[in-house]
Design goal:
heterodimer; A: 0% strand; B: mainly alpha
Chain lengths: 170, 180
Protein backbone atom coordinates (compact mmCIF):
# COMPACT_ATOMS: atom_id res chain seq x y z
CA UNK A 1 0.00 0.00 0.00
CA UNK A 2 2.88 2.33 0.80
CA UNK A 3 4.32 1.70 -2.67
CA UNK A 4 0.95 2.39 -4.26
CA UNK A 5 0.59 5.62 -2.26
CA UNK A 6 4.11 6.72 -3.23
CA UNK A 7 3.36 5.95 -6.89
CA UNK A 8 0.04 7.82 -6.78
CA UNK A 9 1.76 10.83 -5.21
CA UNK A 10 4.01 11.09 -8.29
CA UNK A 11 1.20 11.05 -10.86
CA UNK A 12 0.29 14.18 -12.83
CA UNK A 13 -3.14 14.41 -11.19
CA UNK A 14 -1.68 14.23 -7.69
CA UNK A 15 1.08 16.74 -8.42
CA UNK A 16 -1.49 19.16 -9.85
CA UNK A 17 -3.47 19.04 -6.60
CA UNK A 18 -0.32 19.27 -4.47
CA UNK A 19 0.93 22.40 -6.23
CA UNK A 20 -2.40 24.23 -5.86
CA UNK A 21 -2.64 24.64 -2.12
CA UNK A 22 -6.25 25.85 -2.14
CA UNK A 23 -7.59 22.61 -3.66
CA UNK A 24 -7.44 20.43 -0.53
CA UNK A 25 -9.17 22.88 1.88
CA UNK A 26 -11.80 23.71 -0.77
CA UNK A 27 -12.52 20.07 -1.58
CA UNK A 28 -12.60 19.17 2.14
CA UNK A 29 -15.20 21.93 2.64
CA UNK A 30 -17.39 20.58 -0.17
CA UNK A 31 -16.98 17.13 1.41
CA UNK A 32 -18.30 18.51 4.74
CA UNK A 33 -21.22 20.28 3.04
CA UNK A 34 -22.17 16.96 1.41
CA UNK A 35 -21.91 14.98 4.64
CA UNK A 36 -24.17 17.63 6.18
CA UNK A 37 -26.82 16.78 3.58
CA UNK A 38 -26.38 13.06 4.35
CA UNK A 39 -26.65 13.57 8.12
CA UNK A 40 -29.67 15.89 7.76
CA UNK A 41 -31.46 13.34 5.57
CA UNK A 42 -30.62 10.32 7.73
CA UNK A 43 -31.63 12.23 10.88
CA UNK A 44 -35.04 13.21 9.49
CA UNK A 45 -35.79 9.64 8.33
CA UNK A 46 -34.67 8.25 11.70
CA UNK A 47 -36.71 10.80 13.67
CA UNK A 48 -39.74 9.82 11.58
CA UNK A 49 -39.14 6.13 12.38
CA UNK A 50 -39.14 7.03 16.08
CA UNK A 51 -42.19 9.27 15.62
CA UNK A 52 -40.25 12.27 16.93
CA UNK A 53 -40.63 14.45 13.86
CA UNK A 54 -42.92 14.83 10.82
CA UNK A 55 -45.56 12.41 12.16
CA UNK A 56 -48.25 13.83 9.87
CA UNK A 57 -46.39 12.42 6.89
CA UNK A 58 -45.98 8.71 6.14
CA UNK A 59 -42.57 7.09 6.46
CA UNK A 60 -42.65 6.25 2.77
CA UNK A 61 -43.28 9.93 1.87
CA UNK A 62 -40.47 10.98 4.21
CA UNK A 63 -38.05 8.52 2.63
CA UNK A 64 -39.07 9.64 -0.87
CA UNK A 65 -38.47 13.25 0.15
CA UNK A 66 -34.92 12.65 1.37
CA UNK A 67 -33.43 9.68 -0.48
CA UNK A 68 -32.57 11.53 -3.73
CA UNK A 69 -30.61 14.09 -1.69
CA UNK A 70 -29.01 11.33 0.35
CA UNK A 71 -27.75 9.38 -2.66
CA UNK A 72 -26.81 12.56 -4.54
CA UNK A 73 -24.71 13.77 -1.61
CA UNK A 74 -23.07 10.33 -1.38
CA UNK A 75 -22.02 10.77 -5.02
CA UNK A 76 -20.45 14.15 -4.19
CA UNK A 77 -18.68 12.56 -1.19
CA UNK A 78 -17.24 9.83 -3.43
CA UNK A 79 -15.93 12.32 -6.01
CA UNK A 80 -14.43 14.75 -3.45
CA UNK A 81 -13.06 11.76 -1.54
CA UNK A 82 -11.24 10.49 -4.63
CA UNK A 83 -9.74 13.97 -5.18
CA UNK A 84 -8.48 14.07 -1.57
CA UNK A 85 -6.92 10.59 -1.78
CA UNK A 86 -5.28 11.52 -5.08
CA UNK A 87 -3.92 14.76 -3.64
CA UNK A 88 -2.63 13.32 -0.37
CA UNK A 89 -2.24 9.56 -0.95
CA UNK A 90 0.20 8.85 1.85
CA UNK A 91 -1.77 10.86 4.41
CA UNK A 92 -5.01 9.04 3.54
CA UNK A 93 -4.04 5.49 2.56
CA UNK A 94 -1.41 5.08 5.27
CA UNK A 95 -3.79 5.86 8.12
CA UNK A 96 -5.78 3.35 10.15
CA UNK A 97 -8.61 5.92 10.51
CA UNK A 98 -9.09 5.95 6.72
CA UNK A 99 -9.52 2.18 6.44
CA UNK A 100 -11.80 2.03 9.51
CA UNK A 101 -13.84 4.81 7.91
CA UNK A 102 -14.12 2.87 4.63
CA UNK A 103 -15.26 -0.22 6.58
CA UNK A 104 -17.94 1.81 8.37
CA UNK A 105 -18.97 3.31 5.03
CA UNK A 106 -19.53 -0.21 3.67
CA UNK A 107 -21.66 -1.00 6.75
CA UNK A 108 -23.59 2.26 6.29
CA UNK A 109 -24.39 1.47 2.66
CA UNK A 110 -25.47 -2.09 3.53
CA UNK A 111 -27.78 -0.72 6.25
CA UNK A 112 -29.29 1.86 3.85
CA UNK A 113 -29.94 -0.75 1.15
CA UNK A 114 -31.38 -3.19 3.74
CA UNK A 115 -33.71 -0.47 5.03
CA UNK A 116 -34.91 0.62 1.60
CA UNK A 117 -35.62 -2.92 0.39
CA UNK A 118 -37.35 -3.82 3.67
CA UNK A 119 -39.52 -0.70 3.42
CA UNK A 120 -40.48 -1.67 -0.13
CA UNK A 121 -41.50 -5.19 0.91
CA UNK A 122 -43.19 -4.43 4.26
CA UNK A 123 -44.42 -0.87 3.74
CA UNK A 124 -47.56 -1.39 5.82
CA UNK A 125 -45.74 -2.92 8.77
CA UNK A 126 -43.16 -0.09 8.79
CA UNK A 127 -45.97 2.47 8.54
CA UNK A 128 -48.00 1.27 11.52
CA UNK A 129 -45.12 1.26 13.90
CA UNK A 130 -41.49 0.46 13.44
CA UNK A 131 -40.78 -2.58 15.62
CA UNK A 132 -37.68 -3.21 17.67
CA UNK A 133 -35.74 -4.26 14.57
CA UNK A 134 -36.64 -1.08 12.72
CA UNK A 135 -35.64 1.16 15.59
CA UNK A 136 -32.40 -0.74 16.04
CA UNK A 137 -31.65 -0.26 12.34
CA UNK A 138 -32.36 3.48 12.68
CA UNK A 139 -30.06 3.87 15.69
CA UNK A 140 -27.31 1.81 14.07
CA UNK A 141 -27.51 3.89 10.89
CA UNK A 142 -27.10 7.16 12.78
CA UNK A 143 -24.27 5.70 14.86
CA UNK A 144 -22.48 4.46 11.73
CA UNK A 145 -22.66 7.90 10.08
CA UNK A 146 -21.43 9.67 13.18
CA UNK A 147 -18.54 7.22 13.44
CA UNK A 148 -17.72 7.85 9.76
CA UNK A 149 -17.45 11.58 10.59
CA UNK A 150 -15.26 10.95 13.63
CA UNK A 151 -12.97 8.55 11.72
CA UNK A 152 -12.78 11.00 8.83
CA UNK A 153 -11.59 13.75 11.14
CA UNK A 154 -9.16 11.34 12.85
CA UNK A 155 -7.30 10.84 9.55
CA UNK A 156 -5.64 14.14 10.49
CA UNK A 157 -4.76 12.73 13.92
CA UNK A 158 -3.86 9.12 13.15
CA UNK A 159 -1.42 9.15 16.08
CA UNK A 160 -4.40 8.56 18.41
CA UNK A 161 -4.12 4.87 17.41
CA UNK A 162 -0.57 4.68 18.74
CA UNK A 163 1.37 1.73 17.35
CA UNK A 164 -1.70 0.62 15.36
CA UNK A 165 -1.32 3.63 13.12
CA UNK A 166 -0.14 2.73 9.62
CA UNK A 167 1.67 6.02 9.21
CA UNK A 168 5.29 5.46 8.15
CA UNK A 169 7.77 6.64 10.75
CA UNK A 170 9.55 9.69 9.40
CA UNK B 1 -10.20 44.16 31.40
CA UNK B 2 -9.16 44.32 27.76
CA UNK B 3 -9.63 41.61 25.16
CA UNK B 4 -5.98 40.50 25.13
CA UNK B 5 -6.04 39.88 28.87
CA UNK B 6 -9.26 37.84 28.60
CA UNK B 7 -7.80 35.77 25.76
CA UNK B 8 -4.62 35.11 27.70
CA UNK B 9 -6.60 34.14 30.77
CA UNK B 10 -8.69 31.70 28.73
CA UNK B 11 -5.59 30.18 27.19
CA UNK B 12 -3.93 29.83 30.60
CA UNK B 13 -6.98 28.18 32.19
CA UNK B 14 -6.60 24.63 33.46
CA UNK B 15 -9.37 23.50 31.10
CA UNK B 16 -7.45 24.79 28.07
CA UNK B 17 -4.23 23.25 29.37
CA UNK B 18 -5.98 19.92 29.93
CA UNK B 19 -7.22 19.83 26.33
CA UNK B 20 -3.79 20.83 24.98
CA UNK B 21 -1.95 18.24 27.03
CA UNK B 22 -4.22 15.37 26.08
CA UNK B 23 -3.46 13.32 22.98
CA UNK B 24 -7.16 12.60 22.43
CA UNK B 25 -9.16 15.58 23.70
CA UNK B 26 -8.72 17.98 20.78
CA UNK B 27 -9.35 15.42 17.99
CA UNK B 28 -12.46 14.14 19.78
CA UNK B 29 -13.82 17.64 20.53
CA UNK B 30 -13.22 18.56 16.89
CA UNK B 31 -15.04 15.40 15.74
CA UNK B 32 -18.07 16.24 17.90
CA UNK B 33 -17.92 19.79 16.50
CA UNK B 34 -18.15 18.34 12.97
CA UNK B 35 -21.05 16.04 13.94
CA UNK B 36 -22.87 19.06 15.40
CA UNK B 37 -22.23 21.28 12.41
CA UNK B 38 -23.39 18.64 9.92
CA UNK B 39 -26.70 18.48 11.84
CA UNK B 40 -26.94 22.30 11.91
CA UNK B 41 -26.17 22.63 8.21
CA UNK B 42 -28.11 19.55 7.11
CA UNK B 43 -31.32 20.59 8.87
CA UNK B 44 -31.08 24.28 7.92
CA UNK B 45 -30.48 23.25 4.30
CA UNK B 46 -33.78 21.31 4.39
CA UNK B 47 -35.61 24.52 5.34
CA UNK B 48 -33.66 26.72 2.91
CA UNK B 49 -34.33 24.35 0.01
CA UNK B 50 -38.02 24.34 0.96
CA UNK B 51 -38.06 28.17 0.85
CA UNK B 52 -36.50 28.01 -2.60
CA UNK B 53 -39.09 25.45 -3.67
CA UNK B 54 -36.32 22.98 -4.57
CA UNK B 55 -37.17 20.27 -2.01
CA UNK B 56 -40.14 19.18 0.16
CA UNK B 57 -42.21 21.53 -2.03
CA UNK B 58 -45.43 19.64 -1.30
CA UNK B 59 -45.02 19.86 2.47
CA UNK B 60 -46.19 23.10 4.20
CA UNK B 61 -43.28 25.37 5.11
CA UNK B 62 -44.30 25.65 8.77
CA UNK B 63 -44.35 21.83 9.06
CA UNK B 64 -40.85 21.58 7.59
CA UNK B 65 -39.68 24.27 9.99
CA UNK B 66 -41.30 22.61 13.00
CA UNK B 67 -39.68 19.26 12.06
CA UNK B 68 -36.15 20.60 12.18
CA UNK B 69 -35.98 23.56 14.58
CA UNK B 70 -35.46 21.81 17.95
CA UNK B 71 -32.70 19.62 16.45
CA UNK B 72 -31.02 22.56 14.73
CA UNK B 73 -30.81 24.53 17.98
CA UNK B 74 -29.62 21.55 20.03
CA UNK B 75 -26.90 20.86 17.48
CA UNK B 76 -25.99 24.57 17.35
CA UNK B 77 -25.47 24.54 21.12
CA UNK B 78 -23.22 21.50 20.73
CA UNK B 79 -21.07 23.19 18.05
CA UNK B 80 -20.92 26.38 20.13
CA UNK B 81 -19.69 24.47 23.19
CA UNK B 82 -17.13 22.38 21.32
CA UNK B 83 -16.08 25.44 19.31
CA UNK B 84 -15.45 27.36 22.52
CA UNK B 85 -13.38 24.47 23.91
CA UNK B 86 -11.19 24.47 20.81
CA UNK B 87 -10.94 28.27 20.85
CA UNK B 88 -9.55 28.50 24.38
CA UNK B 89 -6.64 26.13 23.65
CA UNK B 90 -5.09 28.80 21.42
CA UNK B 91 -7.29 31.85 22.03
CA UNK B 92 -5.03 34.77 20.94
CA UNK B 93 -4.08 33.00 17.69
CA UNK B 94 -7.68 32.19 16.73
CA UNK B 95 -8.83 35.66 17.72
CA UNK B 96 -6.43 37.37 15.34
CA UNK B 97 -6.88 34.76 12.59
CA UNK B 98 -8.60 36.29 9.55
CA UNK B 99 -10.53 33.15 8.60
CA UNK B 100 -11.79 32.72 12.15
CA UNK B 101 -13.07 36.30 12.20
CA UNK B 102 -14.67 35.86 8.80
CA UNK B 103 -16.39 32.71 10.06
CA UNK B 104 -17.80 34.51 13.11
CA UNK B 105 -18.91 37.37 10.85
CA UNK B 106 -20.75 34.97 8.53
CA UNK B 107 -22.51 33.29 11.48
CA UNK B 108 -23.60 36.75 12.68
CA UNK B 109 -24.86 37.62 9.19
CA UNK B 110 -26.85 34.40 8.96
CA UNK B 111 -28.41 35.26 12.36
CA UNK B 112 -29.39 38.70 11.04
CA UNK B 113 -30.76 37.07 7.88
CA UNK B 114 -32.90 34.75 10.03
CA UNK B 115 -34.17 37.68 12.10
CA UNK B 116 -35.07 39.71 9.02
CA UNK B 117 -36.96 36.71 7.63
CA UNK B 118 -38.83 36.08 10.90
CA UNK B 119 -39.91 39.73 11.11
CA UNK B 120 -40.78 39.90 7.40
CA UNK B 121 -41.98 37.04 5.20
CA UNK B 122 -41.96 34.63 8.14
CA UNK B 123 -44.80 36.53 9.83
CA UNK B 124 -47.11 35.98 6.89
CA UNK B 125 -46.08 32.35 6.42
CA UNK B 126 -49.69 31.18 6.88
CA UNK B 127 -50.55 32.91 3.57
CA UNK B 128 -47.96 31.04 1.48
CA UNK B 129 -47.49 27.97 3.66
CA UNK B 130 -48.68 25.45 1.06
CA UNK B 131 -47.22 27.23 -1.94
CA UNK B 132 -44.33 25.46 -3.63
CA UNK B 133 -43.05 28.91 -4.61
CA UNK B 134 -42.87 31.25 -1.57
CA UNK B 135 -42.64 35.07 -2.04
CA UNK B 136 -39.39 36.54 -3.32
CA UNK B 137 -38.18 37.82 0.05
CA UNK B 138 -38.58 34.31 1.54
CA UNK B 139 -36.67 32.78 -1.37
CA UNK B 140 -33.94 35.35 -0.92
CA UNK B 141 -33.68 34.49 2.79
CA UNK B 142 -33.37 30.80 1.90
CA UNK B 143 -30.68 31.41 -0.72
CA UNK B 144 -28.71 33.74 1.57
CA UNK B 145 -28.90 31.30 4.47
CA UNK B 146 -27.62 28.45 2.29
CA UNK B 147 -24.73 30.54 0.93
CA UNK B 148 -23.79 31.96 4.34
CA UNK B 149 -23.68 28.55 6.03
CA UNK B 150 -21.62 27.06 3.18
CA UNK B 151 -19.29 30.05 3.69
CA UNK B 152 -19.11 29.27 7.41
CA UNK B 153 -18.04 25.68 6.61
CA UNK B 154 -15.37 26.86 4.13
CA UNK B 155 -13.96 29.43 6.58
CA UNK B 156 -14.06 26.90 9.42
CA UNK B 157 -12.07 24.36 7.45
CA UNK B 158 -9.66 27.09 6.39
CA UNK B 159 -9.02 28.07 10.02
CA UNK B 160 -7.53 24.61 10.48
CA UNK B 161 -5.05 25.27 7.68
CA UNK B 162 -4.00 28.72 8.85
CA UNK B 163 -3.81 28.47 12.64
CA UNK B 164 -2.99 25.08 14.07
CA UNK B 165 -1.46 23.20 11.20
CA UNK B 166 1.34 24.07 8.84
CA UNK B 167 0.42 23.88 5.20
CA UNK B 168 2.74 21.46 3.45
CA UNK B 169 5.45 23.25 1.50
CA UNK B 170 5.28 23.27 -2.29
CA UNK B 171 7.61 20.81 -4.04
CA UNK B 172 11.14 22.15 -4.29
CA UNK B 173 11.99 24.21 -7.33
CA UNK B 174 14.92 22.73 -9.16
CA UNK B 175 17.28 25.66 -9.59
CA UNK B 176 19.15 24.04 -12.47
CA UNK B 177 15.98 24.14 -14.57
CA UNK B 178 15.90 27.89 -14.30
CA UNK B 179 19.18 28.32 -16.15
CA UNK B 180 18.41 26.04 -19.09
Amino acid sequence: MNNFAEWLAQTQASLAIQTHLWVIPAVQSVHIVAIGIVVGSVLMIDLRIFGLSGRDQSLEQTVQRFSPWLWGALGVLLITGVVMVTGEPVRELMSLSFWLKMSMLAVGIILAVTFQSSLKRNAIRWENSAGFGGKLLAIMTLFVWFSIIVLGRLIAYDHVWGTWSLRPIT
Amino acid sequence: MDVTAVLQKLEASSLAAGIRDSLYAFPLIESVHVIGLTIVFGTIAIMDLRLLGLASARRPFTSVKRDIMPWTWMAFLLTLTTGFLMFITNAPVYYSNFQFRAKMGLILLSGINMLVFELGAGRTAHRWDDSSSPPGSAKLAGALSLLLWIGVIFMGRWVGFTSTRNVEPAPDVNLEDLFK
